[in-house]
Design goal:
single chain, about 160 residues, mainly alpha, two-stranded antiparallel sheet, 5 helices
Amino acid sequence: MPTPQPANLKLLNGRAPGRDSGGRKVIQSGIGRGVPDKPADLTAEAAQEWDRLVDGSGIRTWLKPADRAALVNLCETWSELVRLRKYLRKNGFKQRTTVRDAAGATTTKYVERPEVKLYKAFLVEHRLQATAFGITPTSETAAARATATDAPTGDANNPFASGPR
């Protein structure tokens, strides 16, 4: 079974306005698509991520101008992840600290840096944002599955359209 085509491609090859080449109605979302404007104040790493996502991935066709803030958030989260990862690689994930107990005795031990907790939180946040944009393998598969079942279930005027009878 061939992969379902996007609604605009079906309409391009259609017989009449709003109908595909087989004469079936094509469901359209009605949402205007387009790449949002890239903000000038992105950090260097975030700007690179913006370009990589917008130019090099399939989300370009899904984007709309209203996605600008969410896309900025995704790119800046990535930028912070990179910054924190570089810091932790340089300084280590643990730090040496000396603590004094109630009796006055001191103990030196290694504890996790506070930045590690922040890094882990940014990892989770980035994964959630990336999933929302459909750029993780799992979300990409789910989107493909949704698109495959997103086809019209049938048309009363078309006896050959698949769907419940």
